Amino acid sequence: DLFQKLDYNKKSSFIQSLLNKIYQPKKYFHYSKQILNMYMIAFMLIYYLTFNMLENGFNLIEKIYNFTLLPLLIVYDELDLPEPKLINLKYEMIFTCLLTSIIYFGQLFFGMKHYQKHMLNAYKGIFIDIPARSAFKTARLMSKKYSLS
Question: Does the pTM of the predicted model rise above 0.85?
Answer without folding.
Answer: no
